[in-house]
Amino acid sequence: MNEADSGMVCRILDVIGYRKVERPEEADVVFLNTCSVREKPEEKAISRLGALRKLKERRPDTIIAVAGCMAQRVGETLLKRAPHVDILVGPRRLHRLPMLIEAARATGQTQVDLTLKDEPLPTWSHFLDAMAGSAEGASERARPRVESARASACTVYVNVMQGCSYFCTFCIVPFVRGTARSHPPQQITDEVKRLVQQGVKEVTLLGQNILAYGKDMGARWRLADLLEMLNEIEGLERIRFTTGHPRDADESLLQAMASLPKVCEHLHAPIQAGHDRLLRDMKRLYTVGQYLEMVNKARATVKGISISSDIIVGFPGETEEEFEESLRTYETIRFDQAFMFAYSPRPGTRAAAMDGHVPLEVRRRRLHALIALQNGIAQELNRAREGRRFEVLVEGPSEKDAKKLCGRTRDHRLVVFGGPALSKAEGPGSLVGQMADVEITAGRTWGLEGRLAA
């Protein structure tokens, strides 16, 4: 979601006359988007701000904007540590960035907007439409420069809701992004249609708990209804969504995944812990048994589904026995992919104030053991695909070998491929944004290797 927010901010700044540059030293505006889900991203943001202080000293007219979850969590106390910051804006107020930039330039005063309003927000495309009228002629003006990020051309993220209403004891999200608020389905449909007209083939719908989409709008709408609407869009080839609370993976969603041809067979449903006592203290509102029941139902309903997860080790009070039982749970489930983390205390959350915090060296040891287990499972599952062919949406050249291409299968496995048929194609670049038939030659822990089928 942070990547999507950064991309949309770049589009907003483009509308008002900015263009992207490669280095901060060339920028008139530096937009630093931040994350608070763990401690490490915040440390990286503080380090980056230290480097930007020297830039500000050399070029005092440069506007430095700090945005996102860390800005929301830390608030104006951040300005004591980084007085060179010109704008401090929360994740629900990014649409006000043009006004904040103008005010910062006009007054020379730091601008702060950290409002967390519990109200529906328009999708980015609708906001950009509203801006476009007031920005007529921007293309004729000299364009200032901005450092930011953009999304891929053929596969993009689309925010469909903000916030989460579950308040798990370890999680900072509800405090920095607010409770769950869904965008109206027609706005989302309009935005996706616009993206398809621009050449997009795949959209990933985003929400902190996207499986709860529509619940704040009453009984009329659910994620399954939105998927059905998007499935009708001509030219759109794939639909993904992430991330979701397992409690909300209901029958309607699984049936939509099974029956709608454009909805990909991949479900990201974080288990977070593999022991009932830990899940209870995390306030996850399900047991290991209930999670296993959901997984089994998903696999029985949706042919070829892959299931991925987030997992935390070293939650306060976790004993060695509970950790070992959690490992047995993960061996039983056999996740296709998992994002694994050592517990990181988040100030203001209930877990941060709990007794029994696990020493850092123990958390690290347990994390390494979990990674070793999951890597073995992933490699086994990926090796089972050797010799088979899969449809891959080609996203671009491989980062490690520019002579090869990469993309993803419908079940979200990364594929890097080459082969004689690729060298005979009209230049590898001609396949970007297209579906390719790829034969898998090797299964790795990170994904699949293959060759373009003749």
User: So what's the oligomer here?
Assistant: single chain
* Count of strand segments: 19
The dominant shape is: globular
CATH fold type of the largest domain: Rossmann fold
Helical content (DSSP H or I, runs of 4+):
25-40%
Adjacency order of strands in the biggest sheet: 1-6-2-3-4-5
Q: How large is the radius of gyration?
A: 23 Å
**What is the level 1 CATH name of the largest domain?**
Alpha Beta
Please give the largest β-sheet.
Answer: 6 strands, parallel
Strand content: 15-25%
Give a quick set of tags describing it:
454 residues, Rossmann fold, Transcription Regulator spoIIAA, six-stranded parallel beta sheet, five-stranded mixed beta barrel
